[in-house]
Design brief:
Blueprint (H helix, E strand, L loop, with lengths): L2 E2 L22 E5 L2 H11 L3 E5 L14 H9 L2 E4 L9 H7 L5 E3 L30 H15 L4 H26 L8 E6 L3 H7 L2 E6 L9 H14 L3 E5 L5 H12 L5 E6 L14 H15 L18
Parallel strand pairs: 1-3, 2-3, 2-4, 4-5, 6-7, 8-9
Length: about 325
């Protein structure tokens, strides 16, 4: 079970020098996001104890490390962060820490030609690669290789566990493609709080409209809201989505603006964008997170998907 401490450089080479002799003690791994934490849990099993710095509802774009975070990372055997400028406020610290211990930016294991450009920062990429289950396996493999490099005695277990998890992700990708493909083409417009879903849109043929940019640091102005209300009314968009880690203030403004124009706009549900669901819940796993998003979007925009999702577990806790 992942523990939580609190509510871009190139990926570092996987050459750590000394390896860790596990004996009876599990590897101590600190990760920044819950998505990475889930990948470590799936691959490492009981060979690692995982601490995630950012829990449910936490926005990684604005997160700054606390004293307890620093102590935890300094004491860890391995620190895994996403990179691609997701943890913008922590990047300098993590790069400095990498001079002293194994620290890997696992998101930067994704092939560069498969990354989307970052509209807000020249020369950087959109970090939200977990939104496409056809890309996330590259991150899982980087996690696997990081663990093997540090703990070669566990290589067979890490490889077997990773293969099993990758098969689950493949099943998830097929499910998402099926249910999202059932959404009428004229309704394939996803409006949410910020641009976290560009990889999703690229994978499933949706036009993605975020009120804020890729980073949540930039506030949406009145003109942006007015532009989106015009779009919603003109395209007859029926639903917009809130995000678990971003304030719903701007989404509410869209609904009010559309109502003033005589257009009925509803909230299609809450999506998990930069953080997963609650620990010990199905939605608190990567599989459950994407299952929830794909199912919610399909059902809200006129597609066909089972109410309880791919595995019949949505909303059912653990």
């Amino acid at each position: 079970m992942t523990k939580f401490l609190s509510t871009t450089a190139l990926a570092l080479p996987l050459t750590f020098g000394a390896t860790v002799a596990l004996a009876e003690e599990p590897l101590q791994v600190v990760v920044t996001t819950s998505m990475i934490g889930d990948a470590v849990e799936q691959v490492a099993g009981d060979r690692a104890e995982v601490v995630a710095l950012m829990g449910p509802g936490v926005d990684p774009h604005a997160y700054r490390q606390t004293r307890s975070d620093i102590a935890s990372m300094v004491a860890a055997d391995l620190v895994l962060w996403h990179g691609l400028y997701l943890e913008a406020q922590m990047e300098d610290f993590l790069l400095h820490l990498a001079e002293r211990k194994p620290v890997v930016a696992v998101g930067e294991g994704v092939e560069a030609d498969q990354l989307l450009s970052h509209d807000d920062y020249d020369g950087r990429f959109d970090p939200h690669v977990w939104m496409d289950p056809d890309l996330w396996p590259q991150v899982v493999l980087t996690v696997r290789d990081s663990l093997i490099e540090l703990d070669p005695d566990g290589e067979a277990a890490y490889r077997e566990n990773a293969d099993s998890h990758l098969a689950e992700i493949e099943e998830l990708a097929a499910y998402a493609s099926e249910v999202l493909g059932s959404v009428p083409e004229n309704q394939r417009v996803l409006v949410s709080a910020h641009d976290a879903f560009n990889y999703f849109g690229d994978a499933y043929g949706f036009e993605v409209v975020g009120i804020q940019g890729i980073s949540t640091e930039a506030e949406a102005g009145l003109r942006r809201i007015e532009e989106l209300v015009d779009l919603i009314v003109e395209r007859e968009i029926s639903a917009v989505f809130v995000e678990s880690s971003v304030s719903d203030r701007n989404i509410r403004a869209l609904i009010e603006g559309a109502a003033a124009r005589g257009h009925d706009l509803s909230i299609g549900g809450q999506l998990f964008s930069d953080a997963m669901g609650q620990p010990d819940s199905y939605e608190g796993t990567y599989i459950g997170m994407i299952d929830h998003n794909a199912t919610s979007i399909a059902r809200a925009l006129g597609g066909e998907a089972p109410e309880l999702g791919m595995q019949g577990r949505l909303g059912a806790g653990s």
